[in-house]
Write a structure and sequence with these properties.
By secondary structure, the protein is an alpha+beta fold. The chain has five helices and four strands; from the N terminus they run E-E-H-H-E-E-H-H-H. The strands form two sheets. A two-stranded antiparallel sheet has the order 1-2. It has a two-stranded antiparallel ribbon with strand order 3-4. Helix 2 (about 25-45) packs across helix 4 (about 80-95), helix 3 (about 70-75) crosses helix 4 (about 80-95) and helix 4 crosses helix 5 (about 100-110). The N and C termini lie far apart (about 40 Å).
Length: about 110
Amino acid sequence: MSLVFDENGRPYVVIREQAEKKRLKGIDALKKNIIAAISIANILKSSLGPKGLDKMIVDQDSQVTVTNDGATILQQMDVMHPIARLLVDLSKSQDNEIGDGTTGVVVLAGALL
């Protein structure tokens, strides 16, 4: 880690670990983004509909949650990928605006990809 200054004299930190990582570009980045979004949609796909299966989620404090609500499942997940995080935000906005259909919009977005 090193401290560098920009042209206006503002300091910023350069982390060497980030510089050593290879950044994906082009079609490889597109494929990875689609795979991340589809995997989030596949997690929720089995909980959709009247015969949807429940998911058991265990958090860091060993609290167990059993639900088939897409908003609760996505809220309990720790999603790090930026595109997968967009699907979580899509679900949250659907829940805020309408109050229902959180699983459906994520599965629909995954199917469109």
